[in-house]
């Protein structure tokens, strides 16, 4: 029997135990610790998306905090498409195994960013493998132990449901809104 001791709140120390295949990633945190878990882990409805852009998302009003079990409502029930974005950062959250991406309206590393997440759910396995493969083709490794700031921003488009997260350490200092596209699918250009 193997015992694993974790001495801090960070699960990064055990991330090397994860497989390289993102579809086989096993979350270290229980769903009950994931803010609005049931609201985030849904399929993207098969409807025509609403065209938007990063500046519009950054301008959406934000709530102070929604209850941790709040269902999707309002804007969160709509599918959006961002045709022109730049992928700046990519990583795998070791707690919930979601792919965490940061996009901006320009290639500038100081541009304000929006978080995009592709969940660990089985129906998103092809989308997760696709983003991993697209990044690998550009020389960037994305798995449970590799990721972070992308040296040169990559043009992308994103389709997903909007989601209003809460204020916490959600990425780089350039993340400028609580609004996310989660769940989402990303295509690099």
Task: Give a written overview of the molecule.
It is a single chain. The protein has 189 residues and is mainly beta. The chain has one domain (53-188). The chain contains three helices and six strands, in the order H-E-H-E-E-E-H-E-E. The chain has helices at residues 37-40, 54-59, 125-137; strands at residues 50-52, 79-92, 99-104, 113-118, 148-164, 175-188. A five-stranded mixed barrel has the order 2-3-4-6-5. Mean pLDDT is 89; it is low at 1-16.
Low-confidence runs: 1-16
Structural class: mainly beta
Strand order of the largest sheet: 2-3-4-6-5
Distance between the termini: 47 Å
Largest sheet: 5 strands, mixed, barrel
| Integer average pLDDT | 89
Structure summary:
The protein has 189 residues and is mainly β. The chain has helices spanning 37-40, 54-59, 125-137, and strands at residues 50-52, 79-92, 99-104, 113-118, 148-164, 175-188. The longest helix is centred in the C-terminal third of the chain and has 13 residues, at 125-137.
């Amino acid at each position: 029997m193997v015992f694993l001791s974790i001495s801090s709140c960070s699960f990064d120390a055990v991330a090397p135990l994860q497989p390289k295949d993102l579809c086989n990633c096993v979350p270290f945190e229980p769903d009950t610790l994931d803010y609005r878990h049931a609201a985030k882990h849904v399929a993207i409805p098969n409807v025509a998306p609403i065209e938007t852009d990063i500046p519009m998302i950054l301008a959406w009003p934000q709530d102070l905090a929604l209850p941790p079990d709040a269902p999707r409502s309002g804007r969160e029930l709509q599918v959006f498409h961002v045709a022109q974005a730049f992928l700046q950062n990519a990583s795998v959250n070791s707690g919930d195994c979601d792919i965490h991406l940061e996009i901006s309206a320009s290639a500038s590393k100081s541009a304000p960013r929006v978080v995009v997440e592709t969940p660990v759910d089985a129906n998103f396995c092809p989308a997760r493998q696709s983003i991993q493969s697209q990044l690998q083709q550009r020389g960037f490794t994305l798995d449970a132990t590799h990721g972070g700031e992308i040296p040169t921003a990559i043009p992308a488009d994103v389709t997903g449901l909007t989601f209003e997260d809460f204020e916490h350490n959600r990425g780089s200092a350039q993340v400028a809104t609580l609004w996310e596209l989660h769940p989402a699918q990303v295509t690099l250009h």
